[in-house]
DNA sequence: CTGGGTGGCT
DNA sequence: AGCCACC
C-alpha cells in the first residue's frame, strides 16, 4: 500500500464543507416577490419548471418538470419566469463574497453549489482556540457537532478528524448564518473529509439544515444512496454504460473487481468509481477563478429565417456585451452555438459550435466605452454561415453566443498592455472615422440597427452601420477578419423590417405574435409585397411547408410569424 | 412537450 | 469542436 492510499483510508487530513443554497432560483424570486410568501412557487424557463420552493415540492413538483405537469399537480402554483439569470448571478456573486470571508478555497459548481476547504481554518482553531483573521468565536468547549450527523457515533478515528469535523460543523453554522443575515437566503451544508462525502451527506437534510459525516460512516453513506447515478460525475451516459454491465447500485460497483471494471468502462473511470464506492475521493477543492466563458443562449421552437437569426443574435449580443463590461476583462474570442431541429428525434438535436477570434477593434475603446455592435453582429453572422448552410431550409431550436477567451491583464489599468490597447482602440476609431465620415458611423450608439424606430419606414431612408460597412467595402487596417466575410445580400424589406423591430430578451418576435383573438398585425397586403420582394430561393423557403410531427402546414407566410413559444 | 448556463476531457 | 457532466 503506497502512502497516498494509506492517507485515503486511515488518515483524513482535510476538512471540507459543501454549501448548497436551497432551491436557489425560487428563493431569489421569493425575495423579489414578497407577496408570494407562503405560496407554492415555481421558476419557469420556457416550458419547464426548473425549480420550485419547498411548498411547491410538497405537491410533488420536481426539478425540470414540464409546466403542464406542474400545473396538474398544483394548479395554484405561482410561476415566475426565470430565463434571465441576471438576478441569480447577482446573488450568487454575493454568496461567493461571503464564503470568501472564510477562505479563498471556494470551488463553485453552478450558481448555488460550493465546496470550501477549511482545513487550515480548523487547524487554527485547534491550535489556539480561534482564528485571528477569521473573527468568529466558536465554542470549543462543546464537543458535540452542530446539526445532524449521519451514521452511528463510533469511537474516534485515530487521525483526529472527528475533532476537526466537529469544529467544521460549527463553522458551517457560521457560514449559513452570515448568508442568512446578509441576504436572507438559506443554505444547507454537508461536512466531511472529502468533497464526495460533504456533497452527498449535505443533501440528506434540507432545507436550511446541515449534516456531518465521520469517515467511518463513509461506506454506509455510499450504500445508502443506492443508484450509481447519485455519484457526482456519473451522468446519464455513464449510468447507462454501467447498467449495461449489470451495475446499478453502489454495492454492485463494490462487488465488481477493479480489473473487470477497467475492461468494461475504462481504467480512469473504473478507478474513480471504485474509490467513490468506498467513500474515497482525493480530488482537491479547486478555487474557482474568473469565468472562462461568458455566454447567453435562447431556445425556441423554430427559427428558419436569416433575418430572425440576425435579430435574435443582435439581442443576445447586446446583453452579452453588457455582461462583458460588468466582468471588466477583454474578450478575445467569440463562439456561436446553434441547435438544429432534429426530425429523427422528438427531443432536441445536438449542438454545434463555431469559434473565431474577436479582433481588437471590436472591443470597447476607452473613449466610447462601448462595443461596436454592428460589427459584432456581422462577425456572429459569419460564424452562423459557417455553421448553417442557408442555401437549404434550416430550422433552429437554439441560438447562443459567448465570449470564450479573455485578454490577460498583468496589472491594473495603468499597465502597459492597457496603455497599448487604448492606443489601438483610438487608432481604429480614427481609421474608421476618416474613411467613412464621423457622422455615418455611430460608435456611441450600440446596435443602432435594432434600436431604431419600430416603424420600418425609417430604415429605408437611413442606412444601418451594417449595410454601410458592406456597401462601401471599407478597408480599415483592422478589418483583417471582417473583410473576409462574403457580402451579405442586400437587405430585403422583410429583413429590414424584421431587424428594425425593437426587441426584448427572449421575446424578440413579440410584435409578430398572432393570437386567434387579436387582429393580425401584419396585413395581407404587406405580406404579399414583402414576399414578392424576397429573393426567389427565400420565397421558396418561406412558403415551403416543412415536415412536422403534426399535420402539414398551409403555404402561408403568416405561419412563420405565429408565436413559437 | 427539455432551460440557461458553466467547466473539463478528448 | 464535440461530448459529458454539473447545477
TrEMBL record:
Source species: Tetragonisca angustula
Q: Any idea what this protein is called?
A: UmuC domain-containing protein
User: What GO MF terms are annotated?
Assistant: damaged DNA binding; DNA-directed DNA polymerase activity
Any single biological process term in GO = translesion synthesis
Sorted UniProt keywords: DNA synthesis
- Superkingdom assignment: Eukaryota
The similarity comment for this entry is: Belongs to the DNA polymerase type-Y family.
- In this chain, the stretch annotated as Disordered covers 441-475
State where composition is biased (Polar residues): 445-475
Q: Which Pfam families does this entry report, sorted A to Z?
A: IMS, IMS_C, IMS_HHH_1
Domain named UmuC: which ranges? 16-235
Amino acid at each position: 500500500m503506497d502512502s497516498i492510499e494509506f492517507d485515503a483510508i486511515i488518515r483524513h487530513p482535510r476538512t471540507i464543507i459543501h454549501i448548497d443554497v436551497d432551491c436557489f432560483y425560487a428563493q431569489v424570486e421569493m425575495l423579489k416577490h414578497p407577496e408570494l410568501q407562503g405560496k407554492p412557487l415555481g421558476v419557469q424557463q420556457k416550458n419547464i419548471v426548473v425549480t420550485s420552493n419547498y411548498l411547491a415540492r410538497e405537491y410533488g413538483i420536481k426539478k425540470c418538470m414540464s409546466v403542464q405537469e406542474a400545473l396538474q399537480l398544483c394548479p395554484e402554483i405561482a410561476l415566475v419566469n426565470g430565463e434571465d439569470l441576471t438576478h441569480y448571478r447577482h446573488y450568487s456573486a454575493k454568496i461567493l463574497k461571503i464564503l470568501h470571508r472564510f477562505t479563498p478555497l471556494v470551488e463553485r459548481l453552478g450558481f448555488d453549489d460550493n465546496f470550501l476547504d477549511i482545513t487550515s481554518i480548523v487547524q487554527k482553531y485547534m491550535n489556539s482556540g480561534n482564528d485571528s483573521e477569521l473573527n468568529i468565536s466558536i465554542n470549543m468547549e462543546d464537543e458535540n457537532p452542530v446539526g445532524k450527523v449521519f451514521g452511528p457515533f463510533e469511537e474516534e478515528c485515530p487521525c483526529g478528524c472527528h475533532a476537526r469535523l466537529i469544529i467544521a460543523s460549527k463553522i458551517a453554522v457560521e457560514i449559513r448564518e452570515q448568508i442568512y443575515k446578509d441576504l436572507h437566503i438559506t443554505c444547507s451544508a454537508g461536512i466531511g473529509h472529502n468533497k464526495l462525502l460533504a456533497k452527498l451527506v449535505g443533501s440528506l437534510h434540507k432545507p436550511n439544515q446541515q449534516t456531518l459525516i465521520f469517515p467511518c460512516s463513509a461506506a454506509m453513506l455510499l450504500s445508502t444512496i443506492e443508484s450509481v447515478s447519485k455519484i457526482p460525475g456519473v451522468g446519464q451516459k455513464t449510468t447507462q454504460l454501467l447498467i449495461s454491465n449489470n451495475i446499478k447500485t453502489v454495492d454492485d460497483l463494490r462487488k465488481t473487481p477493479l480489473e473487470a471494471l477497467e475492461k468494461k468502462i475504462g481504467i480512469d473511470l473504473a478507478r474513480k468509481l471504485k474509490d467513490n464506492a468506498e467513500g474515497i475521493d482525493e480530488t482537491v477543492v479547486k478555487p474557482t477563478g474568473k469565468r472562462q466563458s461568458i455566454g447567453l443562449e435562447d431556445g425556441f421552437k423554430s427559427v428558419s429565417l436569416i433575418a430572425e437569426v440576425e435579430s435574435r443574435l443582435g439581442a443576445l449580443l447586446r446583453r452579452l456585451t453588457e455582461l462583458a463590461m460588468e466582468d471588466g476583462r477583454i474578450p478575445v474570442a467569440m463562439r456561436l452555438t446553434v441547435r438544429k431541429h432534429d426530425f429523427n428525434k422528438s427531443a432536441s438535436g445536438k449542438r454545434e459550435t463555431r469559434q473565431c477570434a474577436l479582433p481588437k477593434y471590436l472591443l470597447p475603446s476607452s473613449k466610447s466605452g462601448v462595443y461596436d455592435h454592428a460589427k459584432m453582429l456581422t462577425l456572429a453572422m459569419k460564424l452562423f454561415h459557417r455553421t448553417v448552410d442557408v442555401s437549404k431550409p434550416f430550422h433552429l431550436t437554439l441560438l447562443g453566443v459567448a465570449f470564450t477567451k479573455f485578454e490577460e491583464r498583468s496589472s491594473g489599468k495603468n499597465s502597459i498592455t492597457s496603455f497599448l490597447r487604448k492606443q489601438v482602440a483610438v487608432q481604429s476609431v480614427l481609421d474608421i472615422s476618416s474613411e467613412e465620415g464621423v457622422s455615418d458611423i455611430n460608435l456611441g450608439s450600440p446596435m443602432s440597427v435594432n434600436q431604431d424606430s419600430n416603424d420600418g419606414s425609417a430604415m429605408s431612408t437611413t442606412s444601418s452601420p451594417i449595410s454601410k460597412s458592406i456597401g462601401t467595402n471599407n478597408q480599415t487596417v483592422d478589418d483583417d477578419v471582417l473583410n473576409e466575410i462574403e457580402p451579405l445580400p442586400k437587405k430585403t424589406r422583410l429583413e429590414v423590417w424584421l431587424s428594425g423591430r425593437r426587441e426584448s430578451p427572449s421575446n424578440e418576435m413579440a410584435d409578430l405574435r398572432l393570437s386567434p383573438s387579436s387582429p393580425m398585425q401584419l396585413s395581407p397586403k404587406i405580406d404579399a409585397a414583402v414576399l414578392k420582394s424576397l429573393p426567389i430561393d427565400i420565397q421558396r423557403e418561406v412558403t415551403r411547408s416543412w415536415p412536422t410531427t403534426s399535420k402539414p402546414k398551409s403555404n402561408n407566410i403568416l405561419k412563420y410569424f405565429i408565436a413559437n413559444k
